[in-house]
Each structure stands twice: as C-alpha cells, then as structure tokens.
Design a protein that fits this description.
Elements (H helix, E strand, L loop, with lengths): L9 H11 L2 H7 L7 H11 L18 E3 L2 E3 L11 H4 L3 H12 L3 E3 L7 H5 L6 E6 L4 H13 L4 E5 L9 H6 L9 H7 L3 H8 L19 H11 L6 H11 L3 E4 L4 H9 L4 E3 L5
Parallel strand pairs: 3-4, 4-5, 5-6, 6-7
Antiparallel strand pairs: 1-2
The structure holds flavin mononucleotide.
C-alpha cells in the first residue's frame, strides 16, 4: 500500500503512475497532440497566475465552499472527464467518483469511460455529471442522454472541441488502439506492471462501458474500435446543442469554449455554464 500522507503534490502522483501503469495508458494521460505545444502551454499559463497577498484580515472561519450550477460544493473545482480512466487503474472511474464524493466536489464521467454510467451511479455523490461526445449515431446519443438522466446525473457536459480527433504521436507509436496492439514492446512493458495486471484481472470492466452492448453491431473490441473512430461528428453545431438541451431537460455545461464569440453563442443556445479549456 502507498502511504498517502507522503504524497504531497501532483508530481508525486505522476511519478507513481509512471511506475505502475502500462506505458501506452500512462502516455495517453501524460501527452498532447502533435508537438504537444498546447499541452505544455496549458501548464505554463497556470504558473503565471499569482495571488495577491493582503494581510491583517480576520481569517477565522474561512471556507472554500460555494455552489456550482446551483449545486453545493466544498470548493469550486470539478473532476474533468478523462477517457480510459478505468485503464489507468482497475475500476478507475468508480474510484475517482468515490473520491470526489468524499471531498464534496463534482465528478464528470466521460462518454469514453471504462466503467458505465450505471456502474458509477451506484458510487457517485450528488455531484455526478456526465460528459457527452456527440456521435453521428443520434440514436445512440439519445439513449446515452436518457441513461444519464435515469442514473440521476446533475448536469450534462457537452464537449464541443473534439469534432475531429487530434493526431497524438505517442498513441500512434505505442499502438494505443481498440483493441491495443500486442507488440513485443508492449508485452515486455506489461510484464513490469504486476499490480496493474492483478487489478485488471480482478474486474469485469475492461471495455468502453457506455458503448459496449449499447450499439447495434458492436460486439467485440475490434468492431468497437472501427465504430468509435468513425463516430465523432464533424457537423456538430449550435442547433445540436439546443436539441440536446431539450432532450436532456436539465443543466447543460458546454466544454471546449476558447473564444468570446463562442461563449455568447453557447449562452444563446441555452448553456447554463461554460468550461473554458481545450483538449491539448
Ligand atoms: C487523459 C485525458 C483524457 C481526456 N478525456 C476527455 C474526455 O473523454 N472527454 C472530454 O471532454 N475531455 C477529455 N479530456 C480533456 C480534459 O477534460 C480537460 O478539458 C483538459 O485536460 C484540459 O484541462 P487541464 O488543463 O486541467 O488538463 C481528457 C484529457 C486527458 C488528459
């Protein structure tokens, strides 16, 4: 067991993850697309933000608790959706949802999660949000929205900045695909990760849980891969956001906004909140 009291910063967790997680999944989390310039800038830009120091102000009883989209939170931070979390660690999305619940912040489940909406709902707290990738298969999207509603998700997070998949060089080199390529290099690397193998052997959740068994014609990992690659919809537009909002009927957060003009259009389309970010 890891002594969590000795984990003092994200860098400690990164080092631990690099040691324990098979390279193809570790690299998936710790890399960006193309030159990875945006990925580096995302970190560097945050380092430029400094806090002003005021003194001699009564600090007693201070609190970070507030609300986000009308929901109480212990601090104004939410766990962002990350695809394949259940491949970083067995049942990773369930573990993350439980941690978020214990801490009192929202957890956002990715469309491309390993654990399904239904599985995570049993462990998540009141701040359980679902992130929607808009696929060409609108039938599937409708069912996904209905499943998130039935699971009691408190917000739908619609990702708008992945109409076309980025070219991610490490993923190509590592053979990260569905199913993963069993190259000799991958098998040798896997042999150095016994804790990960034990964890994965002990869970039935090793597929994309929101998709597998919910799409007609998708029965195994290889036709799931082909389906997914073809599904991200390049025609996605604000009319779709309005349509999704109506079908959902609850709070909508749009994700991937980078331009003031898009922020205005998002509000006009009925968004309750915006996530200013990019996929890097
Ligand atoms: C490994 C990884 C997987 C991600 N998967 C998703 C996803 O499934 N859906 C999504 O909307 N965003 C996804 N993102 C984007 C993040 O939610 C977030 O917007 C992005 O990482 C920027 O925030 P950051 O600077 O705090 O990392 C992913 C990011 C990473 C690093």
């Amino acid at each position: 067991m890891t002594d969590l009291s000795k984990i003092t910063c994200i860098e400690d967790l990164r080092v631990l993850a690099k040691r324990r997680v098979p390279r193809m999944f570790y690299d998936y989390a710790d890399s960006g697309s193309w030159t990875e310039g945006t990925y580096r800038a995302n970190e560097a830009d945050f380092q430029k933000i400094l806090l002003r120091q005021r003194v001699a102000i009564n600090m007693e009883g201070r609190s970070t608790a507030t609300t986000m989209i009308g929901q109480p939170v212990s601090m104004p931070v939410a766990l962002a959706p990350t695809g394949l979390t259940g491949m970083q660690h067995a049942d990773g999305e369930i573990a993350a949802a439980r941690a978020a619940k214990a801490f009192g912040v929202p957890f956002t489940l990715s469309t491309m999660s390993i654990c399904s909406i239904e599985d995570v709902a049993q462990h998540a707290g009141p701040g359980f949000w679902f992130q929607l990738y808009v696929m060409r298969d609108r039938d599937f999207i409708e069912r996904l929205i209905d499943r998130a509603k039935a699971a009691g998700c408190g917000a739908l997070v619609i990702t708008l900045d992945l109409q076309i998949l980025g070219q991610r060089h490490k993923d190509i080199k590592n053979g990260l695909s569905t199913p993963p390529k069993p190259t000799l290099a991958n098998l040798i690397n896997l042999a150095t990760k016994p804790r990960w193998i034990m964890g994965m052997a002990g869970t039935p959740r090793r597929q994309f849980g929101n998709i597998h068994g919910h799409v007609k014609g998708v029965t195994d990992m290889s036709n799931l891969g082909a389906w997914t690659a073809d599904q991200f919809d390049p025609r996605l537009n604000w009319g779709d956001v309005e349509w999704i909002k109506n079908r959902w009927g609850g709070k909508v957060i749009v994700k991937g906004i980078m331009e003031p003009e898009d922020a205005r259009l998002a509000v006009d389309s009925g968004a309750d909140a915006l996530i200013v970010s990019n996929h890097g």
